[in-house]
Amino acid sequence: METIQQWDEALFIFLNGFHSDFLDPIMYTLTQTYPWIPLYVFLIYLIWKTYGKQGWWVLLAVGLSILLADQFTSALMKPFFERLRPCHDVLINGMIHNYGKCGGMYGFASSHAANSFAIGTLMNLSLAVKYPKIKWLFLWAVFFSYTRIYLGVHYPGDVIVGGLIGVLAAYLSYKLFFTISKKITKQ
């Protein structure tokens, strides 16, 4: 486990090193929610266009997947594992680039990664048949997650595990809501 943690720290220092004064405020802005509101509105439009009135089932599944992913990472994992964020770790603090605020004390696993991968996965499960190019949302999730490493607030392992949790939360939510909606619409 110690070797994995050392690899994670070394990869973090490498990836965190790709910063510039010009990109810092841009990456900080892009790790927030509000710049992505047009994307979310566009996804809601695609849901409505694909499912019509039944699209609210997809929106409920999105809500549940984000709730599951966020609460599992924030309320359960972070206090249980108590892994310091890189920006709070005094052993590497002088070697890293931290821009903006550091966030809470613990960072394992990344809620940003969990939430973005939950959205990407659920949109792919729901929309890829009609819109196969929607797979680009996974690139968005990777980029959104990388901003956390860039800003010095998460290790790559935090992001990878958070992403996996998001995928799982989305899959479970999708299965639950689409099973329920099929049963209800048959009645």
Automatic annotation (TrEMBL):
Pfam families: PAP2 (PF01569). Keywords: Membrane, Transmembrane, Transmembrane helix. The keyword Cytoplasm does not apply. InterPro entries: PAP2/HPO, PAP2/HPO_sf. Residues 58-174 form the Phosphatidic acid phosphatase type 2/haloperoxidase domain. It comes from the Bacteria. The chain crosses the membrane at residues 26-48, 55-76, 105-129, 136-153, 159-178. This is Phosphatase PAP2 family protein. It comes from Fontibacter flavus.
